[in-house]
Write a sequence for this structure.
């Protein structure tokens, strides 16, 4: 199967005056109407990638539609858009999938890795349920993803060298810099992998304990 860049296909078909690309940065790892949500794009960023030939009036009209459904429009070139999503969405998805398979292929017969893979591991390895969609995404943006993947491989090799050479300061600096930058990122629920929320209650395992918690929640 051969995959095509949408904007390049539009250009080859001579439809540049009639095309505005774009999509919301929102969704879920679940598919089908069963998981529909009438607030799906509310406060989510919506990338708008018009061609250079489409009229300014049409772009403004489409921008108003995006705002009307509650999303936040970002007008961006398709080239920059493809690089951005390759870095913050597509590559992380491949990393998550490869990390899960790393555990699968290196676990012992007792499956201790799988048994203890809870909490943080599951949080960073949440994977959308449509391999077909992700194949299409990766094949239409393969160059950008490959470029960023190489940068990531290079960074992993630097981490490996720090580990092999017992350079603790390198690991300290890695965690410190990444922590500070991550904390500066605005917290929005606009990922293709929706968030998971958990509430933990440390209670005695006895009859009526859950009912007690439910009563407290209901009265408050």
């Amino acid at each position: 199967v051969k995959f095509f860049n949408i904007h390049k296909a539009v250009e080859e078909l001579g439809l540049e005056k009639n095309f505005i690309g774009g999509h919301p940065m929102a969704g879920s790892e679940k598919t089908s109407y069963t998981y529909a949500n009438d607030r799906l794009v509310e406060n989510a960023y919506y990338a708008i990638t018009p061609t250079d030939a489409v009229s300014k009036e049409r772009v403004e009209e489409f921008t108003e539609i995006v705002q009307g459904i509650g999303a936040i429009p970002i007008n961006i070139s398709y080239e920059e858009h493809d690089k951005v999503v390759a870095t913050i969405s597509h590559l992380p998805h491949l990393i998550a999938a490869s990390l899960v398979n790393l555990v699968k292929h290196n676990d012992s017969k007792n499956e201790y890795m799988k048994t203890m893979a809870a909490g943080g591991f599951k949080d960073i390895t949440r994977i959308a349920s449509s391999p077909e969609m992700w194949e299409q995404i990766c094949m239409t943006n393969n160059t950008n993803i490959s470029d960023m993947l190489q940068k990531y491989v290079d960074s992993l090799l630097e981490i490996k060298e720090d580990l092999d050479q017992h350079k603790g300061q390198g690991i300290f600096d890695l965690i410190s810099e990444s922590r500070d930058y991550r904390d500066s990122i605005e917290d929005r629920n606009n990922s293709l992998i929706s968030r998971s929320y958990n509430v933990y209650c440390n209670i005695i395992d006895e009859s009526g304990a859950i009912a007690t918690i439910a009563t407290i929640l209901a009265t408050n």
